Amino acid sequence: MRTKRTYGFNKRCLSLFVFSGLILLASTSQVWAAETGKRLIFNSSFEPNQPQVRSEGLRVVKGTARTGDYCLVGRVDKPDRFESIEIPFEAKKNSLVNISFWVRSDNHSACAVMLKKAKKREHIGEIKRVATADWERMLCSFRTYADTVAIIQICGPSSFNAPAGRMWLDDLRILEIPSELNWPDSVQTFPSIDFDRKGNLWLAAAEARLPERRICVYKGVSKPRRVCTLVVEGLTGVSAPAVAGVDSGCLVAFGAEVDDKWRMAYAFVSDADPQKTSCKFIDCGGSANISPAIAVVGRRACMVWESNAGGNRSIYACWVDRNSCSQPQRISSSDSNSYNPDIVALANGDLFAAWDSVRNQSADIYGAWFKSGRWQDEIRITSGKRIERHPALAAKGNELWLAWQAQSYKELRIDNVSEQRIAVARLDGNELLAPLGLYENVSKKKERLIRPRIAFDGKGRLWLTVRRTTDRVGWQPVAYCYAGNQWSEFQSLCEQIGRWYPVKLAGGGGTLGAGIQYDDLDRPGGHHGIADDFKSGVMAVPVANDRMTPGKLKTEPLKMPDTDFSLKEQIELCGADFPRQKWNRNGKKLKLFWGTLHNHTDISICGRTTNPPGHDLLANARDIELQDFCALTDHGFNFDNPMWIYNGEQTRNNHDPGRFITFLGLEWTSKDNPPAVPGEPNRYGHRNFIYLNTYYDQFHDAMDGDITPFDVWRQIRKTEFVSIPHQLADWRHKGKGNPPTDWNYVDEKLQPVAEIHQARASYEYLGCPRQSKSATPFKGYFLQDAWAKGIIIGVIASPDHGGGLGKAGVWAEELTRESIFRAIQARHTFGTSAPKMALWFGAGDAMMGDKVRRLSGSVTFLVKALAMQDIKEVVIFRNNKIVYRVEPGVNEFKARWTDESPPDEKKLWYYARIHTVDDHLAWSSPIWFVR
To answer: In the sheet that 187-195 helps form, which strands lie side by side, from edge to edge?
Structure first.
């Protein structure tokens, strides 16, 4: 396991741009900003009396400015060019440097911000397609880990992966902010806050002080004091906590894992005698009880949470006080999975709970009232075309307010988010009434906002907190205020960015507070190799805006922005409802199970703000694509020890025995080991490790040195795993960064299958159907090349960052982690390019993936296929050459073919491929005949 962290940079950045010269005209003497402790490095709207810059490609012009009369303009006319300005600066250790400016383009050119230090360049932020109609704001930041003398380079317009054209830049401001954050000696995550009835603020958070995981409870705002640590005997994992203030103290609830089961634990905490604080458990059954929320009414509290007791994941509720706990009651439908509950109490004592669920090919918000002493029937609240999740609730007297997240994706890239909106509305009977100007002033088209929370201050103003997505780095915690009919500009609640965790709001004694997580997680081009654990802290901050005049909140019927996205259509495209297939083989009853073994979440830096968190990704697999199994495989170099523990926790608490199987995994990303021979690709290539043991306590990073696949396999041998090569023949950076697979490292048991297809498309052979555009222009690295070398390796497909673009079909006896794992080891697998398709390929007693003794004489093969669309071609390959081909023209096909005269070779291998009319493919693992 890694123990030290070093910082590096992405060497590929050096080759991305053609440099433009620059001379800084005005002095960048360090001017102190009006804000205490903050210092302006550069501030200009490029008016004649303000600091100026000179560039060979960017010049000051009059008449097109955002503010004042002047701005900068530049132009590029060819692909792969850019213009730039450079701002030299000095900053002290542990400072945050904020960069802000406005841009617009005439042709959607790109804009990027780089940090130049010595001969190194680091990517800080970018806008991939600058707006044309309106000015667009660039906001990005970076932290200094030592006293720094460097250059900020603003590159734009840029035609790298973007159109050539003109770009205007105005109102540039660079600010140094000394760090005032308290970095704790443990890793703190998932803060939850509330005020008790005496006006004291309570904060609960999950903490990792390795090897322990625990829930810690704090009291106070300016100097919070730890009151207690909630201890559970035999604890192996915790989920995000919820906290609610009571008369004097608070109630804390969280999911606690003991003996491979997640139970809902709770405790009443006070100052009186914190050492006697002990946890109690709610007897709900099931193996996963997580995601609690709490509402207090009088001396009792109602808790809701997500549980897989009884089959599907459902929302359960019960009442607790200091002495008793009622019987849990399911309040959501038992027919579909439900997630992410919240609950609120109205002034009259009524309760409302809300959650999200995918039903009837639509992802919506549902809820239920608690009135007159009982829970009412579930109601559907939304019916949009997008994926609507993560409801948050607030009460204004007897008014019920909601906020939630709505997102979409392009094509079949289910886990590659292209749009993230938030909605805010008051539920008035069956109608949703939204604040005016929500989508003009807050949730704009290009803003990616997630995890909303809402509350009301003592003056009746509505507050909304969200995590605002920053480019490929993380999420900024911000707040908006709505009063009368106006929204405020967003207020940054913490200059240090953090993860996607919601910024929870709480009010008490006339004060409104927000609970925030912040961290120093890796940036693009950040650390490579052995590393210290990342830092992560939590805090509570006051929220206020005296400039927003209170007034009656004006609303209008909620109207979400138009969209071409349709979840119903996407579900149909991926063949989610494909019927279960069965096959009897040598007295064993096999079933066809579907899943993916290569998925990235927000942990991976290269897709941090477009790939969803693990709980959402697994819900997509479970409910939208109706997969049977799934693995999360974030990059080894993006893990630290606490993050690896968290990865195991989310893997286990999303496991539904007999219904949805989760695997612990990671991507071993060998990309920077230089070639052994100059001119050759970098060594080893990328592999996914899938572990049978979800408690495996180590993660492995290919950047920990010049370590070979053989070396790392020897390290892992104490637990069962499989290694799966991917992007087999990738040549995107000519063997650098994404090197092709080195086929010198093979093992039939430890490396039983490879990804023939993923989001980058197919690596079957040079010139194959749907070949990856980034593939090598020569043979040697494709999967057929591996077979030609005599390597025994089967076939799967997986999406990588794409989501939906690749699936693995596994013929196994039962839907258990053990059975699926053994079937993968046996190579009883095939892959598809995206939608579900069934493929069976066998010869006598042998089936796809088997290695059998070769007998003399002819061999008869059976190929059976079923697809959602008509099959335009079925082929059988022998030793990489087509020996059988037919054009069925129907969606179901079955045929026998006999190879009457197999060639007299030491090894023969056969595999089948089907190709549908909508240009999707499925490939079987080969059958090998050996002497």
So the answer is: 187-195, 201-209, 212-219, 225-230
